[in-house]
Amino acid sequence: MSSLHIFNHPLICHKITMMRDKNTTTKDFRELAEEVTMLMAYEVTRNLPLREVEIETPICKTTSKVVAGRSVGVVPILRAGLGMVDGIVRLIPNAKVGHIGLYRDPETHMPVEYYCKLPVDAQERTIIVVDPMLATGGSAVAAIQFIKDRGCKDIKLMNLIAAPEGVKVVQEAHPDVEIYVASLDEKLNDHAYIVPGLGDAGDRLFGTK
Prior knowledge:
- The chain is of the alpha/beta class and 209 residues long.
- The chain has helices spanning 10-20, 26-44, 85-91, 138-149, 164-173, 201-206; strands at residues 4-6, 50-56, 61-67, 72-76, 96-97, 99-104, 111-117, 126-130, 133-134, 155-162, 178-184, 187-188, 194-195.
- The strands form four sheets. Strands 1, 4, 5, 8, 9, 10 and 11 form a seven-stranded parallel beta sheet that branches. Strands 2-3 form a two-stranded antiparallel sheet. A two-stranded antiparallel ribbon has the order 6-7.
- Helix 1 packs antiparallel against helix 2 and helix 2 packs across helix 3 (85-91).
- The longest helix is centred in the first third of the chain and has 19 residues, at 26-44.
- It is globular.
């Protein structure tokens, strides 16, 4: 079963609390989502491969380490996942960004892909799938599978808030995908909303209802 990483850094806890507050404005919510994502990305990318290069400092020549290979690809699940992209790209400017869009079939209730565009070299990158909320897990499971179907093998999932039910679903469907969350909340309610949660992340990011 895949590993679940829960962040307890004081700055992340503080900013998540501010995001939960119903009185937080759209502007502040958007900025907080970006800041929390950046803080999380520092740890999510801890195991990126390194290689040595020779450089010359103002003092002398030396060897030092840089990220090896083609680094990171970020794939937000539309639309709320867009609110997490800039936090990673500011930390890793050479990250490539793909997009994946899903909708739920009204008859089968299964996720259906309506859009998927990945970097051309996605198979050679560590792919970080981002979505602020991991509720039932259905969208995350489907998105990861669609990305795997395109040949990607090194995939991580990053969420701001998660419910235990969603974590379990993803772990059972994709035991090779590590999950990173800023907060593991209590449960899902009868309407599949995360409790205590922070409301609809997409609406709060984009000022819609």
